[in-house]
Amino acid sequence: QVQLVESGGGLVQAGGSLRLACAASGSIFVINSMGWYRQAPGKQRELVATITSGGDTNYDDSVKDRFTISRGNAKNTMYLQMNNLKPEDTAVYYCKTRAVIGGSFVNYWGQGTQVTVSS
Predict the structure, then answer these.
(1) In whole angstroms, what is the distance from residue 87 CA to residue 70 CA?
(2) DSSP element (H, E) containing 18
(3) Helix (H, G, I), strand (E, B), or coil: what is residue 87?
(4) Whole-number CA gyration radius for the chain
(5) How far, rounded to the nearest angstrom, does the alpha carbon of residue 111 sit from its chain's CA centroid?
(6) Closest CA to 24 of 77, 88, 73
(7) Integer distance in angstroms from the first to the last C-alpha of the chain?
(8) Residues 6+ apart with CB under 8 A from 40
(9) How far apart, in whole angstroms, are the C-alpha atoms of residue 13 and residue 32?
(10) 29 CA to centre of own chain
């Protein structure tokens, strides 16, 4: 059973910074990519940023110049550095890993961590 655990969320004032971390444990699998998603109340879950095993990154336009996604020294770790936070960034942030198992993609999700940005 693969488990993903997010940490680093909290309450911060607009303009502040937070760093989210994700660690995966459990069954051994080959990670194709990892990413951060978020879901605000009343809205659908949306992409924040992704990073492939090769280091290619992709960001939503709303965070492109403010957030940085990175992989840790351990293959199954990932971070999201969030700078210049805005109230509209308030959401539950979820870590996702995409693995290749038996020739198919399999997604694993964490339970989420709350990020609240006050105005």
Answers:
(1) 23
(2) strand 18-25
(3) helix
(4) 14
(5) 11
(6) 77
(7) 40
(8) 90, 91, 92
(9) 35
(10) 19
| Helix spans in 1-119 (H) | none
Residue 72 DSSP one-character state:
-
**pLDDT tens digit string along 51-108?**
998 899 999 999 999 999 999 887 788 999 999 999 999 999 999 999 888 888 899 9
Position 28 scores a pLDDT of: 60
User: What is Dmax (Cα atoms) for the chain?
Assistant: 47
Taking Cα atoms as reference points, which of 37, 74, 71, 66 lies closest to residue 56?
A: 71
* Helix and strand element counts for the chain (H, E): 0, 11
pLDDT tens figures, 2-57: 899 999 999 999 999 999 999 988 876 678 899 999 999 999 999 999 999 889 99
Instruction: Give the whole-angstrom CA distance, residue 60 versus residue 83.
Output: 15
